[in-house]
Amino acid sequence: MAKALEGVRILDFTHVQSGPTCTQLLGWFGADVLKVERPGVGDATRGQLRDIPDVDSLYFTMLNHNKRSLTLNSKNEKGKEVLESLIKACDVLVENFAPGALDRMGFPWARIQELNPRMIYASVKGFGPGPYEDCKVYENVAQCTGGSASTTGFDDGPPTVTGAQIGDSGTGLHLALGIVTALFQRERSGRGQRVLTAMQDSVLNLCRVKLRDQQRLAHGPLTEYPQYPNGTFGDAVPRSGNASGGGQPGWILKCKGWESDPNAYIYFITQAAVWPAICEVIGRQEWIEDPEYATPVARLPKLEYIFATIEEWTKTKDKVEAMDILNPLNIPCGPILSMKEVAAEPSLRATGTVVEVDHPTRGKYLSVGNPIKMSDSPSEVTRSPLLGEHTEEILKGVLGMSDEEIAEARSAGAI
Ligand SMILES: CC(C)(COP(=O)(O)OP(=O)(O)OC[C@H]1O[C@@H](n2cnc3c(N)ncnc32)[C@H](O)[C@@H]1OP(=O)(O)O)[C@@H](O)C(=O)NCCC(=O)NCCS
């Protein structure tokens, strides 16, 4: 079966996490992703956080599936010639270098358009135009400047970053959408275009409910936040602890075994529609009719007490047992799964969301497969390439270079 992006060729100049997540997604959808790396060096993550000496790290292998690797020195004269040919032969160029790096190599947008007017030139940068546009940015800088950290954590603690890589992988996702949208528009216009995604903007987009709350704050306290009714609100959205962020209050509650197991917890949502079922299951039937508890508005100032009471019940069940009791009652809840549990979860293996991949120097390892499932575009996960593994294959197959031309490029230090 054909894949959705078959026939689309990506010149992948990305490194570290944000860009590689984007091109990996495109690769899963069938695009031919040519990862360009500096000869002898490669993507820095190949050597970062290594668990096995001299073997590509999991950091690298898990972000660079379904790609081919070509080593090319794009600052070398001969290398630039090869790069020009690649720009002409590809549909999309993706990069996430520090601001201006491609211009410094001699490939500003105007030059790329000149070489290939159909080219889509997509970039991740830390910030959009403005005071910080020249800054280098990593994940947590984006989480902090995009509004996430100031609203994450507990009221009595410092700003907190989240484990989900919303700055890097979140921006990669945004960029991938920009690229496929530009490919779609190119079908009609025949022209490529510039696609730019700033990490700060992507994080803010993912935090839009907090900007919602910032404006609500002008009209009174945020009643679903743990600061209400006894705490204080300043002039900016505070940290919301484990509050749900939506209209249905929620909190993380202890389950049986919490004293020794750091993940023996469940997320519990007191959705209004199932309030009677919640009261029944925790043995507080009197709350169903009691006007002090019967309506969502009446419950808001007592959420802390209500969740503490529900917790007395959840503490008597383990998290999966609690889920098994609550789910049939339509009470929205979710056990806190550790990475160990997620890795072993059979249903995630069955859908290919967690996959085992074999690698020539590393052996078998687990990875996250394509989380986007499509009925007409199968997605298989292939291992990440070794540094320069496909250099000759790409130069011959994509650019039609002869053995002599390749030898010449090699002796010039271009590949
Ligand atoms: C991530 C980041 C901070 C890393 O910075 P860095 O390690 O210093 O790497 P840079 O992007 O500055 O690239 C280093 C140099 O390598 C050069 N280089 C990269 N690939 C090359 C190649 N194949 N051949 C020749 N030179 C190459 C670049 O041109 C750049 O040179 P310059 O400084 O002379 O312009 C930076 O790339 C960045 O801010 N990127 C944008 C935001 C982003 O994506 N951040 C998230 C990363 S997960």
Report on the structure:
- With 415 residues, the protein is of the alpha/beta class.
- The protein contains 17 helices and 11 strands.
- It has helices at 18-28, 58-61, 77-89, 101-104, 109-115, 139-145, 169-189, 199-206, 208-216, 275-282, 296-299, 303-314, 319-326, 339-344, 346-350, 391-397, 403-411, and strands at residues 9-13, 32-37, 68-71, 92-95, 120-125, 194-198, 250-254, 265-269, 333-335, 354-359, 363-368.
- The strands form 3 sheets. A 6-stranded parallel β-sheet has the order 3-2-1-4-5-6, sandwiched between helices. The chain has a 3-stranded antiparallel β-sheet with strand order 7-8-9, covered by helices on one side.
- The longest helix has 21 residues, at 169-189.
- It is elongated.
- The model has no long low-confidence stretch (mean pLDDT 97).
- Coenzyme A is lined by residues 16-19, 36, 38, 72-75, 96-98, 101, 104-105, 124-126, 136-138, 168.
